[in-house]
Design a protein that fits this description.
single chain, 205 residues, mainly alpha, 46% helix, globular
Length: 205
Amino acid sequence: MLAAEKSVAVPHELMERVFEARRQSDALFNLVRANALYERPIPERHRIIFYLGHLEAFDWNLLKGSLFGLKSAHPEFDRLFAFGIDPVGGGLPTDRPSDWPAVDVVRDYVRNIRNHLDAKLEKGSLEPDFRTNFRTDDRTDNGFSLRTLLNVAIEHRLMHVETLSYMLHQLPLDTKVRPRAQKAVSPNIGGRQSHTGCSRCLPAP
């Protein structure tokens, strides 16, 4: 495993694709009113709240250990949002809204993951003279390069953008916000601006 203090060199173009994929998923979550995030528009699928945490949990579980040596602040959420709540007896999901964390708690989880990962990724992306001992095409201890892992993260997120798009079509109109009413905000939560110049990105949902 790479030590926590090791650094990476990440191409600017690759970081832009990461931010653009986030922008697309964030825009969909921002269409849904907070109380409707616990709805399950399609009986066979998870509640929307699962996907709110799942995208970042996937990125975190993919990158945190094998690349950065980061320790999780919320391992139970890492597992919950990786797999969801299994249905009993192999039937349709039977979990209740009360089985899931509060929306604000999930958003904090998402924010913290983005801040931790971006701090590592952006440093190598933005400082051309930054002395790094791990390049984008070097292989991690799981046998994959950073470039491959980030592309997996991007494609995974975009796959769920498609899933969420048709899921949200099943929601009643009064559970959604008109896109033009969404407030334009900074690309990163917590007031930390993205140094990649991705001014069109939205914050974590």
